[in-house]
Amino acid sequence: MSAMDFIIGGLAGAGATIFTNPMDVVKTRLQLQGELRSRKEQPRQYRGLFHGLYVIAKADGVLALQKGLTPAVVFGFCMNSVRLGTYHAAEVQGWTQSNGSVNVQKAAFWAGASGFMSGLVANPMSVVKTRLQAAAHPSVAVGRQHMYTGTIDALMKIYKTEGFRGFFAGVHASCLRLAIGSSAQLTTFSIAKETLLSHGISTNSRLCLAFLPSALSGAVVSAVICPFDVVTVRILKEQLIANGFCQNSPALLACVASLACGILCVLLETPLDVVSTRIFNQGTSSKGDLMYKGVFDCLKKILKTEGVYGLYKGFGPLYLRIAPHTTLSLVIWDMLNITFEKKR
Predict the structure, then answer these.
(1) Predicted local confidence at residue 207, as pLDDT
(2) What is the pTM of this model?
(3) CA angle, corner 47, sides to 44 and 53, nearest 5?
């Protein structure tokens, strides 16, 4: 285990964040819109992904689509340096394998553990990121508005008004979400890469070898999550193969399958993401009490006032953020590891 393992993981996450942050801004606004109000009573400043992008750009300017970018990049670096760095170290030590091959149980354990630890480390930046992204022009403001001039100002004010605990608001939901997501993502990435290598696919192209497993992981995750989704993916892949896509464009086959299956992954993750966003943004009231006392209290209140619909706010931008972010971060991570290994 070396410091470079963690630096490479951090750079991968930070690099991907730059491209996906606008989706995160829209997702945050959608998830805070109509907080604890019935669907009929909810104002609709943002009607969806593309309308959200338009409204934010019109009211706050185009640069507002990159609000919270600094803490988002720091969050991406901190989270992925621990998550990808720890998992890579476990891979190097052989802790994810049995008899020279990837062991699903061992890989899932280390992937989940690395995700959980990354949630603890990166939570302060996630709180700051969410609050900065939520800050908007009064005409399109949703959720509680925190008046911060930047990342440093936010860190100082949170500590002054909420204490050290303020940096770890929503940490339980965040760690659980990252543990589940990492367990599925990194385990399937390792299995997909090993499978491609064993069949001699993309052995001459390191970039393709890095890209294909990151895209294919969505298809493999679906096999674990839902048999019905597996049927859908297999039919889709067979249709593509029958039309010659497998021979001429395996990357396209991987992309289509992973994007289709990714919907199910986001269905499972969105409720926890909504809860995290709400708790991150709530802060403290003037009386010192909190709107949400914890993960389960937040879930209960959302279901009671907003219904199941409330738990799936921001589904569209979350999906469109996760898909490219997963692919970009894993490709960058794998290519940086390959580059570093060559220089050793």
Answers:
(1) 58
(2) 0.75
(3) 115
